[in-house]
Design brief:
Distance between the termini: 76 Å
Number of domains: 4
Structural class: alpha/beta
Largest sheet: 8 strands, mixed
Shape: elongated
Number of helices: 10
Strand order of the largest sheet: 18-17-19-20-24-23-22-21
CATH architecture of the largest domain: 3-Layer(aba) Sandwich
CATH topology of the largest domain: Rossmann fold
Helix content: 10-25%
Number of strands: 31
CATH class of the largest domain: Alpha Beta
Length: 593
């Protein structure tokens, strides 16, 4: 077993050695008295007595005893421990994978590997687990402290948005074990850490200003980009906004952002251009300094009206044509809009929008209180003013999911048919005030968006870095591999079944998703997490006080002879006191005149 010191500061006790030597060097100067003869003087041993002048150091019993006492005391203060060579200290580090850590990374590389090496030297063996708070990133490193840790930290790319670190911290605790050490490596104060987790913050405040949001809107048939610029610092910041298409500048403007303020800028897409890049003057946080922009082109949803739509056909057509990227056609396969008739009750499988059409000219108002179920299709919509007649109804099945009730009748519900869903309006649209309620259009719009996400086809979108993308792959016999082509970045492939799991790039860039020779998606990703772009509260704090001593105590045994050293200290101290206080025998001789 190796010996280590649990309290290295105890070595300061060795300062007692020069202090004792200084005391013994200070001797009292002897007084010279002339005498006529020496044989009458008493024979005395010369002793060291304190004084103000430095004389030659003389060895004496008290000096050696006092030096031994200092050595015994220093040995006890350092608390020497015998390390167990079979013990293993497990240390789990959880790295905050949010984008703001890219600024703290250089400081982290300077301090963390050295601190880990110090902790590792306190034990015979160490085992390091390096994790990212983004659980999908997987383990970053597992092994002893040393060069591997520095290489793993160098390759680590923090680029996520704000997220909860608790799942990663729980995993770290299970890997480190009950007696292991868990460090949460971040750049800010984290007051809600679980018990036993130490904070290792390496952040610093910086003045940051960047792009907080990008959108493209249609202005009278002209595509127009809009960007929001935000200053996160407490002082005004001046930046230059450059709009370019490839390497061709389109516009350049100097902008002064007020402290903690924001400014919006907008402009049209130049004729013939489908892609732009917005960029600001670079600063210490580059993630929000540029944003690619594309003209959005959503997948078009085509619908067909019933062949015998009758007088209500124009109503259905005008309602559906008001929805974005929805087109009513008659000459191609498309999603049907069905007018239910009990005389012809057949309803096809697959996605559809179903209305009830009652041939009776009029009926009484449907009685009962209106109740809206909690559902993404109806949340926040004002259906409370709906009035409809008690017309024929679409029979409700046990597996149907009601959305809106009037009395005992489900007037709006979802029906699952195979793998597809059908949106059913269980009242006659012509004999209600629903067409004057915005809730009707918004409910249809939400349902169409859900249908659009599951519809295979090509589209162009804007996205935020790291968000889940809406990609619908075509089933067999289409290729079962998706090809991801980021710009910039290497090309990768993913199984087609993982299309719902695809995410936008972590850094601002363009991404294309291909299935065989068909491009399913082209998206431009920009950074828009304003919490990660604000560095005003960042700090540096390493809560490692006492960590080395704690690790040493857990993986070592105390000095079995500490009681003997304590007795030796007491013995030398007592012997020194006795020697200095012992009675001295003096003899007197008569002096003859």
């Amino acid at each position: 077993m190796d010996v280590t010191l649990a309290h290295p500061w105890g070595l300061l006790g060795l300062l007692g050695v020069p202090a004792l030597l200084a005391i013994h060097l200070l001797q009292r100067r002897a007084v010279v008295i002339p005498v006529s003869t020496l044989f009458l003087l008493e024979s005395l041993n010369r002793e060291s007595e304190g004084g103000r002048r430095v004389e030659r150091l003389r060895a004496s019993v008290p000096l050696w005893l006092q030096l031994l006492a200092v050595l015994f005391l220093t040995w006890l203060l350092t608390d020497p421990r015998w390390l167990d060579k079979t013990s293993v200290q497990r240390i789990a580090l959880v790295l905050d994978g949010s984008a703001s850590m890219s600024v703290a990374k250089p400081s982290l590389l300077d301090s963390l590997p050295d601190d880990l090496s110090t902790l590792a030297r306190a034990t015979a063996q160490s085992e390091i687990h390096l994790l990212d708070t983004r659980m999908e990133a997987g383990p970053l490193y597992h092994g002893p402290a040393g060069r591997g840790i520095r290489e793993a930290l160098t390759a680590w790319q923090p680029a996520g948005g704000s997220h909860d670190p608790l799942p990663a911290l729980r995993l770290a605790r299970s890997l480190a074990g009950r007696d292991g050490l868990v460090l949460y490596v971040t750049d800010a104060e984290t007051p809600s850490l679980p018990p036993g987790v130490r904070l290792y913050a390496s952040g610093r405040p910086i003045d940051n200003a960047g792009i907080a949001g990008v959108s493209v809107e249609d202005n009278k048939g002209q595509a127009e980009w809009r960007v929001t610029l935000r200053n996160y610092s407490t002082t005004p910041q001046t930046r230059e906004l450059l709009v370019a298409s490839g390497k061709t500048p389109v516009n350049r403007e100097s902008i002064t952002l007020p402290a903690q303020g924001l400014i919006q800028r907008q402009g049209p897409f130049p004729a013939g251009m489908e892609e732009l890049t917005l960029s600001l003057t670079p600063d210490a946080f580059p993630m929000d300094d540029s944003a690619p922009v594309l003209k959005p082109q959503p997948k078009e949803v085509t619908v067909t009206l019933p062949a015998d739509s009758g007088p209500g056909g124009d109503l259905y057509a005008s309602l559906l044509n008001s929805l974005p990227a929805v087109k009513v056609i008659t000459d191609a396969p498309a999603m049907p809009v069905i007018a239910y008739n009990p005389l012809n009750p057949a309803i096809p499988d697959g996605p559809a929008v179903i209305f009830v059409r009652d041939p009776k000219p009029s009926a009484t108002v449907l009685p009962g209180a209106l109740l809206v179920e909690a559902h993404p299709l109806t949340d926040g919509l004002g259906w409370q003013g709906l009035i409809c007649q008690d017309s024929i109804r679409l029979p409700l099945r046990p597996e149907d999911e009601p959305l809106i009730w009037i009395g005992e009748r489900a007037v709006v519900f979802l029906r699952t048919s195979g793998q597809a869903r059908q949106l059913c309006f269980n009242f006659d649209l012509r004999k209600s005030n629903a067409r004057r309620l915005p809730a009707l259009v918004l409910t249809l719009h939400r349902w169409m968006e859900d249908f659009r996400r599951q519809l295979p086809g090509s589209e162009t979108t804007l996205s935020e870095c790291g968000q889940i993308l809406s990609v619908a792959a075509r089933p067999a016999p289409a290729p079962d591999l998706l090809t991801l082509r980021p710009t910039p970045g290497p090309e990768t492939t993913r199984p087609a079944r993982e299309a719902p799991l695809l995410r936008a790039p972590a850094f601002p860039s363009l991404l294309e998703v291909w299935q065989g020779n068909e491009r399913l998606l082209r998206t431009a990703s920009h950074f828009a997490d304003i919490r990660e772009a604000d560095f005003t509260s960042k700090l540096t704090r390493h809560d490692l006080a006492g960590a080395t001593s704690t690790v040493t105590l857990q993986h070592s045994q105390e000095d079995p002879a500490w009681r003997a050293w304590l007795l030796a200290l007491l013995a030398t101290t007592g012997l020194t006191w006795w020697w200095l206080a012992r009675p001295r025998q003096k003899t007197t001789q008569p002096v003859t005149a």
